[in-house]
Structure formats: structure tokens, C-alpha cells
TrEMBL record:
PANTHER family: GLUCOSE-6-PHOSPHATE ISOMERASE. Pathway: Carbohydrate degradation; glycolysis; D-glyceraldehyde 3-phosphate and glycerone phosphate from D-glucose: step 2/4; Carbohydrate biosynthesis; gluconeogenesis. CDD domains: SIS_PGI_1 (cd05015), SIS_PGI_2 (cd05016). One of its GO terms (biological process) is glycolytic process. Residues 1-16 have a biased composition (Basic residues). This is Glucose-6-phosphate isomerase. Keywords: Cytoplasm, Gluconeogenesis, Glycolysis, Isomerase. Catalyzes the reversible isomerization of glucose-6-phosphate to fructose-6-phosphate.
Length: 563
């Protein structure tokens, strides 16, 4: 079993008192993790019939069951000490005060202001952030209602029936995920489509389904410089111009961005630009103007309910004591898995097809935030940070990667997301879905011993030699951790609560690990290299500019293309 990497703290630097407390708290957590019984879960249930009641917590409408993990009472106490020693509450409060906690970009982090009432009074420096948020929400609402009422129409006078959101990363994943989760027949006169990949096969697949005369195009980009988005925006703009005439294209365009100069240069009228501020990180921007496609496709009321759901989770996070604060507890469980037990990955399995894009959204939210190797102070981190996050909807996942989760060599903690009541009339299907989700979690916990596997095969009449041959393959180790999140129903407010829960979990982990969860310098280098490589694909490979592999591949592609 891989042990978590532990490096000595950077030498020579005088530690702060908080640093000393944190180091001691980490040492206590890691010492508990090193005990022989630290991975066992079944004995915790055997010893405590009340474990579920004590480890399953309510936050808003969600029930979050942390009992199927090896966090014992002693481990929980040590983890809560860790949260205190790392100053989680003080950092949370600094975020809420609008302090520039995104230190490398000198920015505040105020996505919580996006879903708070105007009266909440959030401030970012001199600015009344709450007022700015609500001024934009008012514009978004007026625009949405005018489109729905047919007061804003396309160039030919037809009503809009489709909205195409062009954006990538945070300007795509959150809205695309929520639109898929919440869209129902008849909720609005518009269908939403999402174009992210610079691979024009994506656009070619979408194009035949759209009528330019009835399509409203939203260019979603915080920076309005992202290569993929700008290339796709130009393709789609050309398609509109070819069908409607260059001078009428603007009637089909709107933008969501912080870069008003660039939106103007692209030909988008200022009245059609919905702004937000640099204190909204891309992966936290679903609640900002970036969510406009949701308002258009789901209706304003649904968008407002989504924000209200997130707000309810914010209130819980901002006020609940650490020991009942569910995002904090989820983060502590993750720290236990990653740092005390050395589990370097986590799977997310929503047992609801409508949440199929939730794993993709969480991959960006968690890995772009927590995939960091230096602390806020710029020194190497002392222990492992963000785990690999991946997932697929259940039950499909059971027929792909769950084999490894049950019997592979390294445990992979799982988040099971269950929805108690469906929005379809097929009770038997929903029972099967829920039963499978619960069974997976139970199987991971319970495992199957050699005696059980032997008895099962004997009962099936297998000969002794065959039983002996198959036995090792049919044993499940058990004691594999999972968290189950139960939603009463999938609705705008419960989805808002769920996504905000994960956002705050990320915040807490950033505080525990001492990293900046709000920058993403790691995506820059590849972007920079792509420019010159693109030129070489067209004009020829520069001598000595690349490693042998990249140069060889460039040549091979050019040969295939007959260049
Ligand atoms: O992938 C890097 C990134 O900067 C993400 O953080 C962001 O969500 C995405 O690109 C899109 O950026 P923008 O909204 O500026 O186009």
C-alpha cells in the first residue's frame, strides 16, 4: 500500500505558531493513519450501533452519510483539531470579508456573493459586490424574459428556439452540467446547446440541429481570449453571417465576460454583454452571468432557485460549527483518505442520468483548485494534495471501472449521489437504480470473505478443485470507503446545494493543505506552447525547437497531411 509522501518542512524558516499547531495536528492525524486498524470500517459499525446517526449529517435538504469511512471518533477529533489549527474558520471569514485570499492573482474570492441577496453587502475592496451582482442579475432577468416573451427576436423576426453557449472549462462545464440536470420538456421555449472543444467535429455535429434564424449565440469567456472559445465563436459567427448577413449577426449575439473591451471588438453591443468581476473564478462562475444559458433554457425562476439552493449551503458553511459543518467534515474525510491513508483518487458516481456531467464539473472544480505542489508561501507542500477525481453515472460505472474499486490494489473512496424520488413514473426502474447504488456502497464496506465465497460456490454445486481454483478471485477485501449524499429530489435548489457543498469542501481542503485553491497556473504552459506548434504544423518544424518525440510527431502529422 502506498504511503503518503511526507517531506520535511522547509528548513531554516521560522515557523509561525499557527504553523506549529498545524504541523502537530497533521502529525496526530498521520499517526492515527499509520495504526494497523486505521483502514478498518466494519469494526466501527460493530462497536457502535449509533454510527450512522452520528456520522450522517443534514445540510439543507441533503443527507450526507460519512459513516462508511474508517474515520473513528479519535480520528474525527484529530481532524477537527487539524481544521482549527489550520485556521479554517478564520480563512472562511476572510473570504467572506472579500480579502484578496487568491494571493497569486491578488483577487478576492466571492462566488458566495453571486447567490446572496443584495442586502448581504459583500464587498470586494472599495466595490459593493452585492450591488454589482444584483445589477447584472436584473439585466439577465430582463433579457431572459424579453427573449421568452418574443420581444427580443432574431434577424428574420422569428422567435429564438435555441441558445448556443460557446465557452470552455468553467464557462461551459457548470452550465452544461446544470442544463442537463434540470431541463424538462416545456420549462422554457429554448433548448440549450454547449460548444466547448476546439475540435470542429463538435461544431459540425451541432450545426445541422440549429437554424441560424432561430439561434441565440452566447459567447461565454471570463477573459475573452481563450483560444478554443474565440475560434469557435468565429466559426459560429461566420455561419450566422452567411445565413443572415453580416450586419444582422449582432442580433443573434450576446456575451458573458469580464473583458468588455474584447467583447466590443468582437462586435457585441454593450447592452448584450453581461459582466462579472475578477473575484469570480471560472470554475465557480456558474452562478454569475456565465449561467445565462441556464436562465434562458430553464426559465428565470429555476435559475433563481438554483442560486437560492447554493445560498442555503453558503449559510450552513458560514455558520455551522466545525463538528456539524458538512463541507468541513467532507474535506476532513478527504484529508484522512489522501494524507493519513494514502488514497490518491476519488470516484464520483451520481445515480441519476441527469447528473451525467457532474463528474466532469467536479473534475475541474477540484483538480484545477487543488492540483497544487507549492503552498501559498511558495514553498513545496509537505504532503499530498488534491486526489485524482473521476466518475460516471451509476449504474453504468458498475460495468466499467468499479471492478478496480472493489478488488484493485489501492482503495478508491467513492461519492455515491442518490436521488430519493425520480421525475418519471417508472417505479421499478428507480428502485433498481437506488438498490444498485446502495448495494455498491454496501459491497465495498462488507466485502466477501473466503468462507462466504466458498459457501456460495459449494451451494452452486461446484467441485472442490474448482472452488479452490476460483476462491482467490472471488474474495472481496471490504473495508473500502464511500460517502453517500442523498437528495430528496433533483431540483434547482437541491442541485444548487450539492454544487455549493463541493465548492466549500474545496475551500476547506485548500486551507488544510495551505495552497491557493483559486489560481490555475498549471494550465498556462501548454497554452503557450500550442501557439508556436500550431504555426509549425502549418509552416514546418523548427530545427532544435522541441524534444525528439514532439519533433518526430510533428513530422509524422505533416507527412500524413501530405505537407
Ligand atoms: O483551463 C483554464 C481556464 O482558465 C479555466 O480556469 C477557465 O474556466 C477556462 O480556462 C475558460 O476561461 P475563460 O472563461 O476565460 O474563457
Amino acid at each position: 500500500m502506498r504511503r503518503p509522501g511526507r517531506r520535511a518542512p522547509p528548513g531554516g524558516r521560522r515557523r509561525t505558531r499557527m504553523g506549529d499547531d498545524a504541523a502537530r495536528a497533521w502529525a496526530a492525524v498521520e499517526a492515527l493513519g499509520a495504526r494497523p486498524e486505521s483502514r478498518a470500517i466494519r469494526p466501527l459499525f460493530a462497536a457502535d450501533p449509533g454510527r450512522f446517526a452520528r456520522f450522517a449529517h443534514r445540510a439543507g435538504d441533503l443527507l450526507v452519510d460519512l459513516s462508511k469511512t474508517s474515520v473513528s471518533d479519535a480520528a474525527l477529533a484529530a481532524l477537527l483539531d487539524l481544521a482549527r489549527a489550520c485556521g479554517v474558520e478564520a480563512r472562511r471569514d476572510a473570504m467572506a470579508r472579500g480579502e484578496p485570499i487568491n494571493a497569486t492573482e491578488r483577487r478576492a474570492v466571492l462566488h458566495i456573493a453571486l447567490r446572496a441577496p443584495r442586502s448581504a453587502g459583500f464587498r470586494a475592496g472599495e466595490e459593493d459586490a452585492s450591488a454589482a451582482v444584483h445589477d447584472t442579475l436584473d439585466l439577465m432577468r430582463a433579457f431572459t424574459e424579453a427573449v421568452h416573451a418574443g420581444e427580443i427576436r432574431g434577424a428574420t423576426g422569428e422567435r429564438f428556439t435555441d441558445v448556443l453557449n460557446i465557452g470552455i472549462g468553467g464557462s461551459d462545464l457548470g452550465p452544461a452540467m446544470a442544463a442537463r440536470a434540470l431541463w424538462r420538456e416545456g420549462v422554457s421555449p429554448l433548448r440549450a446547446h454547449y460548444l466547448a472543444n476546439v475540435d470542429a467535429h463538435a461544431w459540425e455535429a451541432l450545426r445541422p440541429r440549429l437554424d441560424p434564424a432561430r439561434t441565440l449565440v452566447l459567447v461565454a469567456s471570463k477573459t475573452f481570449t481563450t483560444q478554443e472559445t474565440m475560434l469557435n465563436a468565429r466559426l459560429v459567427r461566420a455561419w450566422l453571417a452567411a445565413a443572415l448577413g453580416e450586419e444582422r449577426v449582432r442580433l443573434h449575439l450576446a456575451a458573458m465576460s469580464t473583458n468588455l473591451e474584447a467583447t466590443g471588438a468582437f462586435g457585441i453591443a454593450p447592452a448584450r454583454v453581461f459582466g462579472f468581476r475578477d473575484w469570480v473564478g471560472g470554475r465557480f462562475s456558474l452562478w454569475s452571468a456565465i449561467g445565462l444559458s441556464l436562465a434562458l433554457a430553464l426559465g428565470w425562476e429555476a435559475f433563481a432557485r438554483l442560486l437560492a439552493g447554493a445560498r442555503a449551503m453558503d449559510e450552513h458553511f458560514l455558520s455551522a460549527p466545525l463538528e456539524r459543518n458538512v463541507p468541513v467534515l467532507m474535506a476532513l474525510v478527504e484529508a484522512w483518505h489522501v494524507n493519513a491513508l494514502g488514497y490518491g483518487a476519488r470516484a464520483v458516481l451520481p445515480y441519476d442520468e441527469r447528473l451525467a456531467r457532474l463528474p466532469a464539473h467536479l473534475q475541474q472544480l477540484e483538480m484545477e483548485s487543488l492540483g497544487k505542489r507549492v503552498t501559498l508561501a511558495g514553498t513545496p507542500v509537505a504532503r499530498a494534495t488534491g486526489p485524482v477525481v473521476f466518475g460516471e453515472p451509476g449504474t453504468n460505472a458498475q460495468h466499467s471501472f468499479m471492478q478496480l474499486v472493489h478488488q484493485g490494489t489501492t482503495p478508491v473512496p467513492v461519492d455515491f449521489i442518490l436521488v430519493a424520488r425520480p421525475d418519471h413514473p417508472h417505479a421499478e426502474s428507480h428502485r433498481a437504480l437506488l438498490a444498485n447504488g446502495l448495494a455498491q456502497a454496501e459491497a465495498l464496506l462488507r466485502g466477501r470473505s473466503a468462507e462466504e465465497a466458498r459457501a456460495e460456490m459449494a451451494a452452486a454445486g461446484l467441485p472442490e478443485a474448482e472452488i479452490a481454483r476460483l476462491l482467490p478471485h472471488r474474495v472481496f477485501p471490504g473495508d473500502r470507503p464511500s460517502t453517500t449524499i442523498l437528495l430528496p429530489r433533483l431540483a434547482p435548489e437541491t442541485l444548487g446545494q450539492l454544487v455549493a457543498l463541493y465548492e466549500h469542501k474545496v475551500f476547506v481542503l485548500g486551507a488544510l493543505w495551505g495552497v491557493n485553491a483559486f489560481d490555475q497556473w498549471g494550465v498556462e504552459l501548454g497554452k503557450q506552447l500550442a501557439g508556436p506548434i500550431g504555426e509549425e504544423l502549418e509552416g514546418g518544424v523548427r530545427e532544435g525547437a522541441h524534444d525528439g518525440s514532439t519533433a518526430g510527431l510533428l513530422e509524422a502529422i505533416r507527412r500524413e497531411q501530405g505537407l
